[in-house]
User: What shape does this take?
Amino acid sequence: MTATAPAHLDLDALRARFPALRRIHAGRPVAYFDGPGGTQVPLEVAAAMQDYLLHHNANTHWAYPTSEETDALLLAARHALADYLGTAADEIAFGANMTTLTFHLARALGRGWGPGDEVIITELDHHANVAPWQAVARERGITLKVVPVDPATGELDFDALARLLTPAVRLLAIGAGSNALGTITDVAAATRMAHAAGALCFVDAVHLAAHGRVDVAAIGCDFLACSAYKFYGPHLGILAARREIAARLDVPKLVPAPETAPERLETGTQNHEGIVGAMAAVEFIASLGSGGSRAARLADAGHRLHGAGQALLEQLWTGLQALPGIRCYGPPPHRPRTSTLAFTLRDAAPEAVARHLASRGVFVSHGDFYATTVVERLGLAGPGLVRAGCACYNTAEEVDRLIAGVAELTRGSRA
Ligand SMILES: Cc1ncc(COP(=O)(O)O)c(C=O)c1O
Assistant: This one.
């Protein structure tokens, strides 16, 4: 297949680094549009994990080479993730996944809250940024308030957020990118509003992190979480936590475990190979950009990835909208959004669409993607939607194949 390069990415060279792209299904090369659920992994990420496990494997903080190498690798990974997220190495903590880190953080923050305190969540968020705050609300007797989404645009109501931000609010929990609809939310503005009201801000950047630059310093938030398996890495959660808050948080921890941040936010022995793999994923993304420092290359790569994703999204949106009986959700092209597109067909259930496309070697996801509230607001609870996400390795030809596969299902449908 000849890959057509979207703006500023050498797509043929990039694709050669992903062995998964050589998979053939039903006689055709697989087109992976399931990136929002987890992207494919380049060779160098798997190689780094293998190298760690085979040559450096040890526990931390002991006086022999493999342990010292492990300490050095974990520190190097904190620096890499700090560059990726626009923060400092001592503000990067690792964990099993974003959900686990968020439950852990919410429980710790909740120890300082009680009746009369309030937390704000949103209707647009993945439930990993909902359930932890619901649990705290139940356990600590605090009140939860919810920012509504406009189902027609897929965007949050910032006027409502302004009204909800009363002095009783302790924290705003908000997503930077919607994994269901692709909406990009202005979390920097939301953080400024939260801070002006005296509240903390927790940002879920799991979806956004694969699609462009995430910059904690520019956002100004107190906490930001993401997951390496959404940006070409292994299954690992990452939490950026403001050092002054992390240093005094009442976290559940073992007495002999380190008292200093960021380690005090981490529980037990970490997933060392996953952390090393996440560092390799950051290096992979940096290699897509140009610039002097790694941080500069990452910033440049973020722009290129966003630009390439927008071109594919526009092609997908336009191609699908032209078919009879199709409805696309979320912001249209040219609104702030990622290259993740959710749609439904009038005459076929989302799962049937996904199965049909799979039979054409095109892998898409279906359901509510745990963004349960917004899918309910759209009136689609139950069957949900079909979701196609464009990652760095997707091509215009693959988008054409996706549209052609959907078109086969719409033949005979009325406009
Ligand atoms: C936007 C968003 N937030 C949170 C999560 C949960 O992440 P994890 O699987 O790392 O717990 C996901 C996973 O799909 C997601 O897309």
The chain has 14 helices and 17 strands. Residues 97-99, 126, 128-129, 175, 179, 204, 206-207, 227, 237 surround pyridoxal-5'-phosphate (CB under 6 Å). Residues 1-7 have pLDDT under 50 and may be disordered. Residues 51 and 194 are 44 Å apart (CA to CA).
